[in-house]
Amino acid sequence: MTLQQLKYIIAVAGTGTITEAANRLYISQPSLTNAIHELEDEMNIVIFNRTNKGITVSREGEIFLGYARQVVEQADILEDKYKHVKGLKKQFCVSTQHFSFAVNAFVDLIKEFGQDQYDFSIRETQTYEIIEDVSRLRSEIGLLFVNDFNKTVLSRIFKANDLSFHELFVARPHVFISSSHPLAGNTVITNHELEEYPYLSFEQGEHNSFYFSEEIFSPVERRKNIRVRDRATLFNLLIGLNGYTVCSGVIDKKLNGQDIIAVPLADESEMRIGYIVHSKGMLSVLGRSYLERLKNYLQ
Q1: Structural domains in the chain, sorted by start
Q2: DSSP code of 44?
Q3: pTM exceeds cut of 0.90
């Protein structure tokens, strides 16, 4: 296995065709095909499924590509440091539940490591997709929370996918409401006081189980429910409908505006917010730096 072969399969996976990848790599199509076959034979896996309609990445190929990207990235960093090769495109991806501190740490990372060329991604997405992204190494880090309700189920899923969970901090539940909400003046809000207002949550698609919910107390029955996909829509509905959602209480007024406030909820439950990584993977320089910025922000 060579570094060049790893770069070849990454290019093919990125373009979706042998022909286009060969053109971009400035090699002949037969040479590229042979290099891939040799790598598959050596590693005893099928990286690409071949059909009459073209090629697709296999399940085991997705996992192998995740490792390959890490190896190539580390090689690029070494070249950048010791060969002084400028202009290498840094790559990093994190998947997260809808946490403002995850965005802030991402911004800080780009400010320090962004060059003339970079390819960074942050995916605010559904819980199941976060787990899948990290298990398939599409994302290096996944941010989510566990509590007494979902811990058993999520721990089993983490183990099945070779993922490890690392706690960042423990949060007591808060309510996000608009600053003009009738309960905005309360120092503490009870669940009883919230009964007449719409409850907002992030929908989880086909995996809409209580265990994948981003909000604590997801099994609690509520008379008025609204589910959304993105944070901006949720905040607009909080303001427009006097709605509320239950969260960690960590809020950034610069990012989320002055119209949204967090008020403690009168409940003894806890949210353990942390990150997942692949147990067999190795954090990159960018991954470690992102976690440091995350921890600094949370402190």
Answers
A1: 3-66 (1.10.10.10), 83-169+273-298 (3.40.190.10), 170-270 (3.40.190.10)
A2: T
A3: no
